[in-house]
Amino acid sequence: KNQVEQSPQSLIILEGKNCTLQCNYTVSPFSNLRWYKQDTGRGPVSLTIMTFSENTKSNGRYTATLDADTKQSSLHITASQLSDSASYICVVSRNAGNMLTFGGGTRLMVKP
Amino acid sequence: EAEVAQSPRYKITEKSQAVAFWCDPISGHATLYWYRQILGQGPELLVQFQDESVVDDSQLPKDRFSAERLKGVDSTLKIQPAELGDSAMYLCASSPRTGRTQETQYFGPGTRLLVL
Question: B103–A97: do the CB atoms touch at under 8 Å?
């Protein structure tokens, strides 16, 4: 069964600290993996997208890693800001890339 | 920057009533998706359009849900009759049809539905 599991479900950190979110998947055949940020009451916004051959990709303070052998990905947030408070969703594509499986998300809260 | 538009942003209705949501994708995007997102969970695909044709509606509860994209541009999702369990965020997304596997889906702000 094609599944995407994220951990932790929720996380609270202090402003300025770093954090890492995890994503494990069993989706096959793998096409690409994306991380989305979803602010409360808003639609998801793409942060990064990685294909099979990419191990890491950065977008400002966000750095995503991918280990296609172990089917794991992580999203590292550096020097967190209050505006980073949101849900972060891991999405894995299969086949031609438009068949998506969504993780349940990690809800991050950054406190001052 | 072009965005996916959705309306209304919020909708409160009583069970057994009919509701309709509208989505206008980014101009030129051939693929349009409707998702349902229950609070605390990831989005679940309801229906996918390629131009005006339905590509995937396997997860759409067809006894009460319907979706159309008559001219291959904007789309409407309807629920009739609404049930309490339909309370959720309904997200619309679009993507260009370029054939690249790295196409990103661009999401609209969503319509939050509450069924009383």
Answer: yes
